[in-house]
Every structure is written in C-alpha cells, then in structure tokens.
TrEMBL record:
Pathway: Carbohydrate metabolism; tricarboxylic acid cycle; isocitrate from oxaloacetate: step 2/2. Keywords: Iron, Iron-sulfur, Lyase, Metal-binding, Transit peptide, Tricarboxylic acid cycle. The keyword Ribonucleoprotein does not apply. This is Aconitate hydratase A. GO terms for molecular function: aconitate hydratase activity. Coiled coil: none annotated. NCBIfam families: aconitase_mito (TIGR01340), PRK07229.1 (NF005558). Its EC number is 4.2.1.3. It comes from Dokdonia ponticola. It catalyses: citrate = D-threo-isocitrate.
C-alpha cells in the first residue's frame, strides 16, 4: 500500500490536544488553516500564539513529494547527509521530463530513451533511502498525490509550486525549494513565516457550464497574480461543500497563480467519497473520528470578517464560464461577446489552433468525463473539429479507468491525441514546432494553470487562454476563441445549425477506479546494499562533493560582478535549456549569473577579469579566479534572489568559489539558501555604500573571526588606485546558521552530527 495509515492516525491522535491548546493561546475560535499549522509545530504542543505575517515558525510536515526535475539536486544533496533513510514519508514522481509529440506510447518510449539515466538514478536513490518511486507514465505528481497520499488535516511540502493541489483534500500543502525538502528528509524542521489568512466564502451552487475552474479564474481576477502572497486561502460555505473533491483540487492548484502560500478546504462528504473511491476507507474512517478538527470552528465561518485578514464572497449561482489570458492567468474574460471585443481590440487571434485538456490542474475522472460529454455531442451532432485536441490524463489510474469507460475513445473518435500521463505541454515539453522562436502568432485554449509566454510550446507568439476542460473542449470544437456554447450555434457537416447541451459527467467513476499497473515502485525495507551509480562522464548527473568551509579569514577577495537592478534566481541560474543540467552542478554552473546586468557596462554576462584586465563571461571569469585560488564577492541591489526557491542559485556560485554576496536587500528564501550552502549573505548597513563599489575592487573581511549573531561585520574595500573604504555590513545569521558556515554547509553539519 502506498500510503501510511499509521502515520495519519498518529497525526490525528495528537490533533485534539494541540488544537485545543492553540485555541486557548490564541484566545479565539480557529480557522482550519490555523488548526493544521498549530498541530504541526516542530515543538509539538503549542506554547505561544504566533502573529500572522510576522513570526517565523518551525514546522514538522507529514510528507514530502518531489518531481523529477527538482528531485535530482534534492536527492544528490540528501545523499550528502549521511542518513540511511528519509526521516518522513517521501515520494518521487517522473512527470516533467516527458515530451508530448506523437502520442503516449511513442512519447513515453522516447522519454525513457533520452532520460533513462536520470530516471534510473532517481529510482535507485529512492530504493536506497526508503522513498516511494512513481515511474515515468505513472502520472502527474499532484494528481498521484491526491489519489494516494493527501489526507485531511495533513501538512505536506513538495519541490513543485503546485504541491498546493492537495488542499483539495483538506491539507496544508506547500511548494518549497529542494534545500528545504532535503532538510526535512534529513530530520530537520521546516521554517515558514506564519501566513496571513484569506477566507473565500462560496455561496450558491455550480451548474450548467460553470466549473470549479471558473471559481479560481474568478478569484485570480479579484486577487491578481500577487494578491495571495504570504497567505493561505481557505474556502468555505455551501458552494464549497457542494463541489467535488477533485474540483476543490483544481481551485487549490491554481492558488499558486495568485501567489498564495497554499489553499485549503474543510473536510466534508465530497472528500470522504473521494477517499473511499480511491481505496482509502481507513483514512476516511480515521478522519470521521476527528471531523471537528478538520474544519474551522463554526463561529469562524459564521463571522469570517473577524477571523480572516481578508474575506471574499462569490455566488456560484451567478458565476459564468471564464477564459483567462493571454500571457497571465489573472486576465479574465467572459466567454462570448466580451471576448470578441477584447480580442479584436488587442489583436488576439480569434481562430483557435489547439485545445489541450489535462495537467495537474484539470485531469481528474470528472474533468475528462465532462469534457467527453461535449466531445460526444460533437460526434452525435455531426460537428467536425475546427482545431486540434490533446489530452493528458493525470494518472494511470484515471487513464485506465477513462479508457475502460469509453471516455478516451470518444476523444479519439474526434482525432484527439492522447498524450502520456505527464506534464507535457504544460511545462513546454511539447514538440509542436521545429523552430518555436520563429513560429507564427496563434491562439490556444487549455485547462492548465500557467499561460506565460512560451510556457506551452516555446513560441512567444502563442496566445494561451486558460479555461475549464468542458469550455476548452467546446472552443476547440468550434475553433473560435469567442464561441459561447451557452448561446451560440454551430453549422454541422449537413449544413444544419446545432447547439451544445450542457456538459454532464461523473464526479467519480460509477464502476469504480481500476488500474493494472499504477507505476509505483515501493522501496526496499533495507536499502543499504543498493549502490547508486552515476557515470563519471555523465553530462546530466554529478555526485556532489562536500563544500569546504570558507573559513574565518577572507582577504584579497575580488569583485566578480556588481549586479545592477533586478537580479532574480532566473538571472542567477537560468531555466529553459539549462533544465537538463539540473542534476549536474558543474555543468549548470556554466549559467551562473549570466542574466545579471553588470552595473559598470549595463551588459549581461560581460565582466572584467581583474587578473588579466580582459572582459568575459561571468562563469568563465569566475573559473579563472577559482583556478588561481582567489575568492570572490558578488554585489547586488534590492531583493536580490527573488523568484523561485531553487537552491541552484546558491549552490552554483558556491561551487565556483564565490565567498560572499553583499546586497542592499535579499529575497528571504535565497538568503537562507546562501546560508545553507555555507556562504556569506550580507546586506549593506548603509545602502549608499553600494555606490562605493568599483570594478577593480578587492575585499578584506576585517573581523570575520568574530562572526556572531546580531553583530555587524566590517569590510575594507581596496580600490584600484590604492584608496580604501571601510564599510559595515549586516547579517541575519543565528548561531546554528553560523555553525553551517563554519562547517561549510548545513548538510556538512547534519552529516557530522549524524556521525557523532
Ligand atoms: Fe507543473 Fe504543469 Fe506538471 Fe502541473 S502539469 S506539475 S503545473 S508542469
């Protein structure tokens, strides 16, 4: 059995005491989000109330989920921790590295051919360290997690931003960087700023063409892509309980598109039905016994304004189908004439080339069955597809069941392509063009979550619009972006005018779920004999060697780059074609800071080598300093390292020999990542000192031997003309973090403690 009922029962056994104590400490009724947070404190039973949006708190998550692209570096790091097994239940899912091109069978074979090295590595590490492994083709991480692992009241972290999908089954599930996941795998706490809380009250009931997807498209319109930042969105009200569990998953999934920490729903009958349908009777029985702790206190939902930081109300009976896009998921347009007007005014192509149904957002049995009811009508009413249609089932269990029930056959009768149970076009793994950069302007509609430029097919001219699966099917059949299936007719093969009836479908398969091989490989009980083999010549994988401590004496360090303006994790470690090197630190280090703008010439990847006086690329210049045994310093502006939580942005400079990053301010996760890799992440005590830094500067750290919490450091900057400036820098290292620095990295310290 994939999931661990004893672990879940253990969580529930402690819940009552922890939640009741928290309620006393907070002094008022608790939301569901607070109940889950307070029952997962690292310290156990709460001893104080935390201030939302202010206090950093240590948590103890119940589970970890990793996808194949991010798992590589996470597991390579975990191997450094000197542990025999992961400390909490963990799974790895192979879903991102599979391209969509010709259809499932051929595409899966191709992926297994080109990425077998990565898949084999992930499988053997999983087997060795007690990690559940889901093979390529088994399904998309978040759908598989919902079907197998998510449970009401649980806390999970995952190395993917749409980990939040599990909120559909009442979890607090949060996307994190690999370094955070490694800490928890190694038995450490996970830190999070206690989130603010946004309540969304859903009244009325979804009906007709309106789907759960439209709820989150509406929320995205209201809150915009930044509106959920630092907050958990908690949905409640009669509209919430009337909705399917997988529909709730869709809503939580796209919470990532409004920047929310996560989203969640209280335990209800739809969740119980889903648990029982997915063979988890014992989880449903256990949840029923602690029901009152798996939803907010009644008073909270009766007077939400008193308990949430912000409250939004949406009447589902008045909500209509929406199309969000292009290029941003918060730009909402009502289907039909509003789209005609907007598309005409903005020159969006009205003709639709492709409809894509699937992704972790909308690939449940219910989604496929409702979309297929539209496809069946097209066949029955003699309509011909006006655009192409592609389907990505969310899991092998959904695919097998949908095939058994004739759902996939309906799509195939419309000449749809059934792609692998994987991310495919949702993550740019769509071989749509041979030369995407020069591909024509066009529109597509999909039921995915993200629609940024180039996201699906690499073509910057593709206008991607996000909709529910049933609207995607209808628009793909009609071939027009402004088709409104509620009011518009189409002309069929016989020249007759026909209209679609409302979609129909099943929340859960009437004959139950079925699957022959779900693609899961359980790890061996004792994996100590398993040898993880990484070929020394591999260009995609490289075993890590522990970082050497930088020491308490840093003098003669050279300036590598003074970054000008925005410097995000993408500028520090680019994605795109570099994705394939995510498991090979030395190779991916060749993209280090190539996107950062040099403050002295406003060019990217063009810095002065102080040893030669020549200008060159950042990684090559840095490698020359490293070869000469010279440490370097990176200087940056405000919010340095914003963007993703990828640890590569800290590991790469560290690997290449950068000792310190001195900036006006940091994005917090990146600052922590630098600390974890045993580097110095420092901020100018006087921001204006940024202007003192010149191109040929040398840095001498004057009092690093006194490195201590809450104590500024002093740096002497020697300029090319021999003049000097002495500046103060601040830091936020606490004593354990200074210990990471002393040992060379957090992992080195874990390994040392483990060996002791
Ligand atoms: Fe991410 Fe898309 Fe895969 Fe979901 S389907 S995990 S959003 S790439």
């Amino acid at each position: 059995m994939a999931f661990d009922i004893e672990m879940i029962k253990g969580v529930y056994a402690k819940m009552a005491e922890r939640v009741d104590t928290a309620r006393d400490l907070v002094g008022k009724p608790l939301t569901l989000s607070e109940k889950i947070l307070y029952s997962h404190l690292w310290e156990g039973t709460p001893t104080k109330a935390f201030e939302r949006g202010k206090h950093y708190v240590d948590f103890a998550p119940d589970r970890i989920a990793c996808q194949d692209a991010t798992a590589q570096m996470a597991l390579l790091q975990f191997m450094q921790a000197g542990k025999d097994k992961v400390a909490v239940p963990t799974t790895v899912h192979c879903d991102h590295l599979i391209q969509a091109k010709e259809g499932a069978a051929k595409d899966l074979k191709h992926a297994n051919d080109v990425s077998s090295e990565v898949f084999n590595f992930l499988e053997s590490v999983s087997n060795k360290y007690g990690i559940g492994f889901w093979k390529p083709g088994a399904g998309i991480i978040h759908q598989v997690v919902l079907e197998n692992y998510a449970f009401p009241g649980g806390m999970m972290i995952g190395t993917d931003s749409h980990t939040v999908n599990a909120g559909g089954l009442g979890m607090v599930a949060i996307g994190v960087g690999g370094a955070d996941a490694v800490d928890v795998m190694a038995g450490m706490a996970w830190e999070l700023k206690f989130p603010k809380l946004i309540g969304v009250k859903l009244t009325g009931k979804l009906s007709g063409w309106t789907a759960p997807k439209d709820v989150i498209l509406k929320v995205a319109e209201i809150l915009t892509v930044k509106g959920g930042t630092g907050a958990i969105v908690e949905y409640f009200g009669p509209g919430a309980t009337a909705m399917s569990c997988t529909g709730k998953g869709t809503i939580c999934n796209m919470g990532a598109e409004i920047g929310a920490t996560t989203s969640t729903f209280g335990y209800d009958e739809s969740m119980e039905r889903y648990l029982r349908a997915t063979d988890r009777e014992d989880v449903a029985d256990a949840a029923n016994k602690v029901k009152e702790y798996l939803t907010a206190d009644a008073e909270v939902y009766a007077n939400p304004e008193q308990y949430f930081d912000q409250v939004i109300e949406i009447n589902l009976s008045e909500l209509g189908p929406l199309l969000n896009g292009p290029f941003t998921p918060d730009l909402s347009t009502t289907v039909g004439t509003e789209m005609t007007e907007k598309a005409t005014a903005n020159d969006w192509p009205l003709q639709v080339e492709w409809g894509l149904i699937g992704s972790c957002t909308n690939s449940s049995y219910e989604d496929l069955s409702r979309a297929s009811s539209i496809a069946q009508q097209a066949l029955d009413k003699g309509l011909k597809m006006k655009s192409e249609l592609g389907i990505n089932p969310g899991s092998e269990q959904v695919r097998y069941t949908a095939e058994r029930d004739g759902i996939l056959g309906i799509f195939e009768n419309l000449d749809a392509k059934i792609f692998t149970n994987a991310c495919g076009p949702c993550i740019g793994q769509w071989a749509r063009y041979s030369d995407p950069k020069n591909a024509p302007k066009n529109s597509i509609v999909h039921s995915f979550n993200r629609n940024f430029a180039k996201r699906a097919d690499g073509n910057p001219n593709t206008h991607a619009f996000v909709a529910s699966p049933e609207i995607t099917a209808a628009i793909a059949i009609a071939g027009r972006l402004d088709f409104n299936p509620l009011t518009d007719s189409l002309i069929n093969e016989d020249g007759q005018e026909v209209m679609f009836d409302e979609p129909t479908g099943w929340e859960l398969p009437p004959k139950g779920f079925e699957v022959k091989d779900n693609g899961y490989l359980a790890p061996e009980e004792d994996g100590s004999h398993i040898k993880v083999v990484v070929n020394e010549d591999s260009e995609r994988l490289q075993l890590l060697t522990p970082f050497t401590p930088l020491g308490r004496t840093i003098t003669g360090a050279k300036l590598l780059i003074k970054a000008f303006g925005k410097c995000t994790t993408d500028h520090i470690s680019m994605a795109g074609p570099w994705l394939r090197f995510r498991g090979h630190l030395d190779n991916i280090a060749n993209n280090t800071l190539i996107g950062a703008v040099n403050a002295f010439n406003k060019k990217t990847n063009f810095v002065k080598n102080q040893l030669t006086g020549e200008y060159g690329g950042v990684p090559a210049t840095q490698r020359e300093y490293k070869a000469a045994g010279i440490k370097t310093v990176v200087v940056g502006d405000h919010n340095y390292g914003e963007g993703s939580s990828r640890e590569h942005a800290a590991m790469q400079p560290r690997h290449l020999g950068v000792a310190a990053v001195i900036v006006k301010s940091f994005a917090r996760i990146h600052e922590t990542n630098l600390k974890k890799q045993g580097m110095l992440g420092l901020t100018f005590a006087n921001e204006a000192d940024y202007d003192l830094i010149q191109e040929d500067d040398t840095f001498n750290f004057l009092d690093l031997n006194e490195f201590a919490p809450d104590k500024q450091l002093t740096i002497e900057i020697v300029h090319a003309d021999g003049s000097k400036d002495v500046i103060k820098v601040n830091h936020t290292y606490n004593q354990p973090q200074i210990d990471w620095y002393n040992e060379g990295s957090a992992l080195n310290l874990i390994k040392k403690e483990n060996a002791a």
